[in-house]
Amino acid sequence: MVEPALSLNETGALANERFHLIQAAPLAGSIGAEARELITSSEDIFVTDQSGRKLIDGPAGMWCINVGHRNQALADTLRDQAMSMTYSTPWYTSNAPAEKLAQMLAERAPGDLNHVFLTTGGSSAVETAIRLVQFYNNVRGLPQKKLLISRQGSYHGSTYLTASLNGRPRDHDWMDGTGDLVRKLTCPNPFHRPANLSLEAFEDFLVDEFRALIEHEGAQQIAAFIAEPIQASGGVLMSPPNYLKRMRALCTENDILFIADEVVTAFGRLGHIFASQDVFGIQPDMITFAKGVTSGYFPLGGVMVSDRLLSELRRSNHPKANFVHGLTYSSHPIGCAVAIRNIELLEDGLLDHAREIGPYFQEQLRTLEALPLVGEVRGAGLMAGIECVADAKTEDRLDLDLTVGKRIDFHCQENGLLVRPLINMCVMSPPLTISRSQIDMMTDALRKGIEATADDLVREGLWSPA
Q1: How far apart are CA 426 and CA 406, in angstroms?
Q2: Beta-strand relationship, 46-49 and 54-57
Q3: Sheet arrangement for strand 420-422
Q4: Cα–Cα distance between 288 and 385 in angstroms, integer?
Q5: 75-131 pLDDT per residue, tens
Q6: Which of 8, 79, 299, 303 is at a distance of 20 to 30 A from 258, taking alpha carbons?
Q7: Rounded to 10 degrees, what is the CA torsion of 278, 283, 288, 292?
Q8: Residue 268: which region, alpha, beta or left (left: phi > 0; alpha: psi -120 to 50)?
C-alpha cells in the first residue's frame, strides 16, 4: 500500500485535503500527514479500495463485522430506530431498546451476570469495569484494595486507565500510564515459553507467578485480575488449557474480581454469544464486550455485572454513595436496537455456521506452517494469528519485523486479501458469513503474500531460510 507523496502549498502547509485527518496510531514523523488507503465500499466479506480492487476483509474491520458488510436488516434497523426515537439521555431517562437489550444479554450471559452497564465501545467498557471495581471496594470500606493485574501481551483499550493495563510490546515506549495501579504478569503464550518448560510446567509457572504476586502485594491490596480469554491484538495468543480456570480459582480464594475482557471473543467470534463459560469454562465477576455486539454498525459496548456485586453494594452501610460515572451515549437507542437485531441474526444460524466452519478455517490456515517464514499459526473459532520468524541479519530486529508485516499486507492486497499486520504477525478474523471456498481463497492469497515477502527478504539479503 503506497502512501501519496506529500505536497506543500505556498504557506508550507499540506495541500492534500486528506491530510486534515489525524490517523489512528500515527508516527511522530508523519502525524497529520498520512493519507492511508481509502476503502470506498463493502459487501458481505469484501471491501473495495480506491483503485477498485475487491479484497476479502480478513480482519472483519477490527474484529467486528461479524454479520458481514451491507447487511440490509441492520441498515433498516438503524434507519427505523433513528426515525422513531433518535436519542434519549441516560442520566435521567431510559428507553425501550436499551431495556430489551439488557434483558437479552442477561439471558445469554453465564451464571449470575444479570446486569449490564452500556457504553460506547471496548475502551469505555473496560474503563467502566475498572471504575466500578474501585467504587465497589470504596463502598465496602476497602479503599486500599485497588491494584489491577493484567498480562504482558494484553490489550484492553486506549483511554488513559485502560491503556495502562495494556501489555503489548512497545505500547508504553512513548506513552504514559498509571503504572502505580497496575501489575503485569508474564504473557501466557506457549510459543515463546522457555525452551526447557513443557506446556504443563509453563502453566504451573504462570499460576505460581500469580500466587507469588498475591503473597507479595497482599490480597487486601489487589482489586481485580483482567484477562482476554484469547489475547487478540497481542497476536491471537492462546494460553495453556487449564490456565484460565486456575487463575479464576486464585481470584476466588483471595477476594479478587475476575474480569473477562470479551471485546473480541463475544458475539460469535468463537461460535457463542459469550465465550467465557461455553468455551473456556470460567465464570467471571464481570464481562466486558463491544465490537461484535452490533457487528460494527454502531458504536456500542458494555459490562456484564454479577448479582453478587450489586447485592453487596445495595446492602452496604453507604446507601448514598454515588457511582459518578456515565457517558452521553450510554444506552443509545439506535445502538441498542441494532444490537438486538444483530443478536437475532447471530442466533438465526450464524453461530451454528461459525461453530461448524471454525475448524476448517483453523485447519486451512495451519497449512501455512509449512512455509519457512512462518513460525506458528494459532487460534480458535474464526480468529487466527500467523507469526513469522524473521531472525534478522540486521541489528534492528524491530525494523525488519515491521517490514515483514507490512510487506505481507502489501502482497496480500495484490492477491485480493486485506490483512491486519502486527509487527511480524498477521491477524485474521473474517466475517462469520465466510464460506469454505472463501476460506480457501483467503488461505491461497495469504500463502502467496508470505511467499512473496520471503522472496523479497532473501533478495535484499535480510533473511534466509533455516
Answers
A1: 9
A2: antiparallel
A3: 374-380, 383-388, 425-428, 420-422
A4: 22
A5: 999 999 999 999 999 999 999 999 999 999 999 999 999 999 999 999 999 999 999
A6: 299
A7: 10
A8: left
Contacts of 348 (CB under 8 A, 6+ apart): none
Q: How far apart are CA 182 and CA 188, in angstroms?
A: 17
The pTM assigned to this predicted structure is: 0.93
Residue 3: the pLDDT is 45
Please count the other Cβ atoms lying within 10 Å of the Cβ belonging to residue 106. 16
DSSP3 helix / strand / coil % (the chain, rounded to 5): 40, 15, 45
CA 380: distance to chain centroid? 14
Cα distance between residue 61 and residue 296, in whole Å: 8
DSSP β-ladder status, 286-289 and 182-185: unpaired
SS3 62: helix
Secondary structure string (H, E, C) spanning 3-38:
CCCCCECCCCCECCHHHHCCCCCCCHHHCCCCCCCC
Euclidean distance between CA atoms 424 and 407, whole angstroms: 10
- Which residue matches cell numbers 455486539? 293
Distances in Å between the alpha carbon of 437 and those of 159, 170, 357, 383, 418? 40, 37, 11, 17, 17
The beta strands (E) that lie in 195-270 are given as 222-227, 257-261
Neighbouring residues of 327: CB distance < 8 A, sequence distance ≥ 6:
90, 119, 120, 124
Q: Produce one character per residue of 261-277: b if its CB has 16 or more CB atoms within 10 Å, e if not.
A: bbbbbbbbbbbbbbbbb
The SS3 call for residue 208 is helix
Distances (CA, A) of 281 to 100, 202, 276, 414: 27, 20, 6, 41
- Would you say 354 and 382 are in contact if contact means Cβ atoms under 8 Å apart? yes
* C-alpha dihedral (203, 209, 210, 214), degrees to nearest 10: 160
Helix pair 397-414, 436-459: axis angle to 10 deg: 130
Cell of 194: 522457555
Question: What pLDDT, in 10s, does the model give residues 219-276?
Answer: 999 999 999 999 999 999 999 999 999 999 999 999 999 999 999 999 999 999 999 9
CA distance 436 to 54: 18
Mean pLDDT across 292-306: 98
First to last CA, the chain: 29
Which of 36-50, 374-388, 437-451 shows the lowest per-residue confidence on average (mean pLDDT)?
36-50
